[in-house]
Design goal:
TIM Barrel
Length: 261
């Protein structure tokens, strides 16, 4: 198991790389996001060298604001172009995995047409990545209603697609965490994991154990579930806010990981 942290795009990217490397993480989950890591205005060759100098691996994460679900075809095309540019960034900085968000589809599309739209979009991205030695993984979103069904349909249509499973997002289901359900159906596609806590009602990116009310994450059980499906890969500690909470959360995963086996 390897732990990583995500850069804050509002801070200087080179400073973020140096901090992540100096605080015991194995890789940077590099979100290619304005203003601090905009694809069109960043010297990515310099960023790649800084990552190597810090002794870090790298996974690239596409910006969460790219509107691939916009009703306008032209806007969706522009968002796809930005996703392809993000894959190009991954190649330059030495990442073998580029992750993106599931955003749903335009409201006027029928469900079957939404599947077809994602199959087309992701097919283009997967081929673009294959040409550059970069795999593409899609992240489950915080809106859990019917999403597991959507993922099964989409992944069936795009054989080369990988899964980024966000444990915090899976905890926003009405009654229970969805980790086991996703891994039971898509565990062979699992390439990366994000983890943070929440109260079961909103995607809060809290440190583990922080929610005072609601359904906090059962961290040990989540780690047990991951290990029961044979996962021993990358886990990004996606805890935002004070960095002390990020470091404590990473420490907690390291402490519990041996117990989860």
């Amino acid at each position: 198991m390897r732990l990583g942290a995500m850069n804050n795009p509002r801070r200087d990217l080179l400073d973020e790389i140096a901090w992540i490397g100096a605080h015991g993480f194995d890789y940077i989950d590099l979100t290619v996001e304005a203003p601090g890591a905009a694809p069109e205005s960043t010297d990515w060759s310099t960023v790649g060298r800084a990552i190597q100098d810090a002794g870090l691996g790298v996974i690239v994460h596409a910006a969460p604001y790219l509107p691939i679900h916009n009703p306008s075809r032209q806007v969706r095309q522009a968002a796809l172009d930005e996703l392809r540019r993000t894959v190009d960034v991954a190649q330059v900085v030495g990442a073998s995995l580029c992750t993106m968000h599931f955003m749903g589809w335009p409201h006027y599309l029928q469900e079957k047409d939404g599947y077809a739209w994602y199959a087309q979009l992701l097919g283009i991205l997967v081929r673009h990545g294959q040409e550059r030695g970069v795999e593409i993984a899609m992240e489950n979103g915080p809106y859990t209603r019917h999403q597991h069904k959507y993922f099964n349909q989409i992944f069936h249509r795009v054989p080369g697609l990988k899964l980024l499973y966000d444990v915090g997002h899976g905890n926003l289901a009405p009654t229970r965490s969805l980790t086991r359900e996703y891994l039971f159906s898509l565990g062979d596609r699992l390439a990366h994991v994000h983890m943070s806590d929440n109260d079961g009602r909103a995607d809060q990116h809290l440190p583990f154990g922080a929610p005072a009310t609601g359904r906090r994450l059962d961290l040990l059980q989540e780690l047990r579930t991951l290990r029961s499906f044979g996962y021993d890969g990358t886990i990004t500690v996606e805890v935002f806010g004070e960095r002390a909470w990020l470091l404590l959360s990473a420490q907690r995963i390291r402490e519990l990981w041996p117990q989860a086996g």
